[in-house]
């Protein structure tokens, strides 16, 4: 193989790794669900509802998100509740998602990781802390370049695998979904640890747990297409396009709609229109 071809392949592999980090972070997002293991103190029903509302509307009501972060940061300032601190990490992740300045965005994701680490220092098995730390690491890897991306991938994998072990249903099977995307999009050995076999296992399980999850269906469709299972891929892609999308979800879901559209275009086109409500 010529030097120029090797260099070209190297650049492609780097782009794949950085793109994978971005999709891992996106895979962690899901429609709001009532958090598990709700505390009787800081995470009482009323406080949890405030958090869920801010998370759901984060892309269309930034003032509400920032107000909620300020309120909950003050509330958890001296807290010893790991779950509450991990919910702060979750809120800060949403804030960082909206930041357009790269340096500021990296700092915000660092804040997210710091809050998750506070939670994990109190409880190393806090599912929320593990999950949102992995998500923030994925976004930071995207912004930090190939060296940091490679350095973060294995720790991210470990965090997500631990979430699967502790609570595979958290965030609509978000850890299964993120692992499936990671294994699908990463190069295989010797460059990295991508594996379509592992990807199929995790995305199949995510689909079994939450069959109506749009993100899982989009990722699963693309993987099945790449595996030559075009009819199955098409069914999942059609589902994504036929699913109504609320205004609050439009920004987040546009990426998954694009994935489904690409599969549909490669399998003969479609009469479906993207759903709205």
The CATH architecture assignment of the domain at 13-175 turns out to be Alpha Horseshoe
CATH superfamily of the domain at 13-175: Tetratricopeptide repeat domain
The secondary-structure element order is: HHHHHHHHHHHH
Percentage of residues in helical conformation: over 70%
Q: How can the largest sheet be summarized?
A: none
**End-to-end distance, in Å?**
53 Å
> What does the radius of gyration come to?
19 Å
Low-confidence stretches: 2-9, 32-40
What is the beta-strand fraction? under 5%
CATH T-level fold name of the domain at 13-175: Serine Threonine Protein Phosphatase 5, Tetratricopeptide repeat
Task: Give me the secondary-structure category.
Answer: mainly alpha
The total beta strand count reads 0
Provide the CATH top-level class of the domain at 13-175.
Answer: Mainly Alpha
Based on Cα principal axes, name the global outline. Answer: globular
* Mean model confidence by pLDDT: 86
**Helical segment tally?**
12
Report what the structure shows:
By secondary structure, this protein is an all-alpha fold. It has a domain at 13-175: Alpha Horseshoe (Serine Threonine Protein Phosphatase 5, Tetratricopeptide repeat). The chain has helices spanning 3-27, 45-56, 62-75, 82-98, 102-122, 127-144, 146-167, 170-185, 196-209, 214-226, 230-242, 250-266. The model is unreliable at 2-9 and 32-40 (pLDDT under 50).
């Amino acid at each position: 193989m010529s030097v120029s071809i090797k260099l070209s392949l190297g650049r492609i592999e780097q782009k794949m790794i950085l793109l994978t980090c971005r999709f891992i972070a996106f895979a962690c997002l899901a429609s709001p669900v009532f958090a598990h293991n709700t505390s009787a103190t800081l995470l009482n029903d009323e406080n949890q509802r405030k958090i869920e509302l801010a998370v759901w509307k984060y892309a269309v009501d930034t003032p509400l998100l920032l107000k909620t972060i300020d309120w909950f940061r003050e509330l958890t300032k001296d807290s010893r509740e790991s779950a509450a601190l991990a919910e702060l990490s979750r809120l800060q992740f949403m804030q960082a998602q909206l930041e357009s300045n790269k340096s500021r965005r990296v700092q915000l994701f660092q804040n997210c990781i710091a809050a998750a680490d506070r939670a994990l220092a109190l409880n190393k098995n806090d599912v929320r802390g593990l999950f949102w730390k992995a998500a923030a690491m994925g976004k930071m890897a995207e912004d930090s370049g190939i060296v940091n991306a490679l350095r973060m991938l294995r720790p991210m994998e470990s965090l997500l695998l631990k979430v699967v072990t502790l609570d595979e249903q958290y965030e609509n099977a978000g850890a299964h979904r993120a692992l499936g995307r990671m294994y699908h999009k990463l190069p295989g050995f010797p460059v990295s640890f991508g594996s379509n076999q592992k990807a199929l296992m995790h995305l199949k399980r995510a689909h079994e747990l939450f069959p109506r999850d749009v993100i899982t269906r989009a990722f699963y469709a693309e993987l099945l297409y790449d595996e030559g299972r075009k009819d199955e891929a098409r069914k999942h892609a059609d589902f994504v396009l036929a699913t109504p999308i609320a205004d609050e979800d439009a920004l987040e879901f546009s990426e998954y709609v694009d994935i489904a559209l690409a599969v549909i275009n490669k399998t003969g086109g479609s009469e479906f229109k993207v759903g709205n409500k």
